[in-house]
């Protein structure tokens, strides 16, 4: 089994799950940081600012646009960077500050990256993942590709959209616009379409807080940058810009300024707020990464020694993390997914047997969810993970579902052997 083969199988259960829905196809990158030392790199490439070693995971997940229910993995990529020859640090001349030297290094790195074709950059994964996703999501009623600022690439806006596929993302860089304005100044004279109080989620550099946001929206046209080859790429793209600003931030807080770009038409404030809501669903993929790394699978604690095996382990764990998320979402009974879309026939048969066993042995804990629904499976797997099934008990979390999922997999393997005669 190859890493490519495992990744190719990520979307098998997703294809039927997205049928007839408006799907938010959310993608992002995350670094998987494994413990290494200078003498024991485990064959891993550098990550972050070059001080750590690990893998880069770039998945796309499908989310129902209305319910925000996770429908499964769509595709993505997983890789370890090649070992790089570390250049000797530049000598600092007298009178030159360390900060100035750092800025010069950053300028040279940026110049080097900008001169390379897209096919040689890691940023190509944003576009490649989106293009490959179209076949997986072909049965969806509509698709909105959602990404953060790293995907603010001209080719993303110019090449990915199609009649049934839209793109939605946050602007990362200022851009010159057709007509003389720039992206950061275009909305300055536009009327405010509405205001709303929203929750700004907690981040490493800020606590969670409320913010009163003003919304403006309008059309802009971006010309093709000189760095983008002409072949096969249109000379300009017209997009909707939605600008969210915080006129009166709390004292000491950085004011909110979001500039969202989308191919969706936004004729009024209602649609503008709808697009903002779709973009804010991007946090679901952050929750996915936490399930993979911290709150569920704790993949970064793996003791596997070699990069090739770590790649396969993360590829398998990426699928398991989605299932844990789906089970966690389904615990309240609102999930619309059927259990056979997530679990194999042997696992379904095992769940049926377990459900009967729990019903016979504990009259105070009853599985009231429709049989073969994902909430039904979620209830049983939570019991396997240690939850007591009582209505007033604290709801099961990702770790409980992870433990229950491990137990189910072992039981299902035994179920497949139930008719095997052993003398």
The biggest sheet amounts to: 11 strands, mixed
CATH class of the largest domain: Alpha Beta
Globular, elongated, flat, extended or rod-shaped: what is the shape?
A: globular
Number of domains: 3
- The ordered H/E elements are HHEEEEEHHEHEEEEEHHHHHH
Approximate helicity band: 25-40%
**Average pLDDT level:** 89
Count of distinct strands? 11
Rg estimate, integer Å: 24 Å
Poorly predicted regions are 85-90
Distance between the first and last residues' Cα: 33 Å
Q: What is the CATH superfamily classification of the largest domain?
A: Transposase Inhibitor Protein From Tn5, Chain A, domain 1
Describe the structure.
The protein has 423 residues and is of the alpha+beta class. The chain folds into three domains: 1-83 and 108-148 and 282-304, Transposase Inhibitor Protein From Tn5, Chain A, domain 1 (Alpha-Beta Complex); 169-273, Transposase Inhibitor Protein From Tn5, Chain A, domain 1, CATH 3.90.350.10; 331-416, Transferase Inhibitor Protein From Tn5, Chain A, domain2. Helices cover 34% and strands 21% of the residues. The chain has helices spanning 3-8, 14-17, 98-114, 124-136, 154-159, 269-280, 283-295, 307-330, 345-361, 374-384, 398-416, and strands at residues 22-27, 30-34, 45-47, 52-64, 70-79, 142-147, 165-170, 194-200, 209-223, 236-245, 257-262. Helix 5 links the parallel strand 6 (142-147) and strand 7 (165-170). The longest helix is centred in the last third of the chain and has 24 residues, at 307-330.
């Amino acid at each position: 089994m190859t890493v490519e083969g495992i990744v190719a199988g990520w979307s098998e259960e997703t294809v039927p799950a997205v049928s007839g829905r408006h799907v938010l196809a959310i993608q992002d990158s995350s670094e998987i940081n494994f413990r290494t030392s200078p003498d024991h790199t485990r064959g891993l490439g550098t990550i972050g600012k070059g001080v750590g070693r690990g893998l880069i995971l770039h998945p796309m997940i499908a989310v129902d646009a209305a319910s925000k229910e996770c429908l499964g993995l769509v595709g993505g990529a997983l890789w370890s960077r090649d070992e790089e020859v570390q250049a000797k640090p530049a000598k600092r001349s007298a009178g030159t500050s360390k900060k100035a030297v750092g800025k010069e290094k950053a300028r040279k790195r940026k110049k080097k990256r900008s001169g390379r074709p897209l096919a040689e950059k890691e940023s190509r994964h944003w576009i490649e993942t989106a293009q490959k996703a179209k076949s997986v999501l072909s049965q969806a009623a509509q698709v909105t590709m959602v990404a953060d600022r790293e995907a603010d690439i001209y080719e993303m806006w110019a090449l990915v959209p199609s009649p049934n596929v839209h793109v939605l993302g946050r602007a990362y860089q200022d851009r010159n616009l057709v007509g003389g304005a720039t992206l950061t100044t275009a909305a300055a004279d536009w009327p405010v379409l509405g205001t709303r109080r929203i929750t700004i989620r907690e981040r490493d550099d800020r606590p969670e807080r409320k913010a009163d946001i003003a919304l403006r929206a309008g059309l802009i046209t971006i010309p093709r940058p000189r760095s983008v080859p002409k072949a096969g790429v249109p000379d300009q793209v017209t997009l909707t810009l939605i600008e969210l600003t915080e006129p009166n931030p709390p004292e000491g807080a950085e004011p909110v300024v979001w500039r969202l770009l989308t191919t969706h038409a936004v004729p009024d404030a209602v649609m503008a707020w709808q697009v903002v809501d779709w973009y804010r669903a991007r946090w679901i993929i952050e929750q996915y990464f936490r399930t993979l790394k911290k709150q569920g699978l704790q993949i970064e604690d793996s003791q596997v020694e070699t990069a090739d095996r770590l790649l396969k382990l993360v590829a398998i764990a990426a699928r398991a993390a989605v299932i844990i998320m789906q089970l966690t979402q389904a615990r309240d009974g609102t999930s619309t997914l059927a259990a056979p879309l997530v679990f194999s026939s042997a696992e379904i048969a095992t769940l049926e047997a377990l459900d009967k066993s729990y019903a016979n042995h504990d009259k105070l804990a009853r599985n009231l969810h429709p049989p073969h629904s994902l909430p039904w499976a979620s209830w049983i797997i939570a019991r396997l993970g240690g939850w007591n099934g009582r209505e007033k008990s604290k709801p099961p979390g990702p770790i409980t579902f992870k433990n229950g999922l491990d137990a189910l997999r072992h039981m299902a393997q035994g179920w497949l052997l139930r008719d095997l005669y052993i003398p």
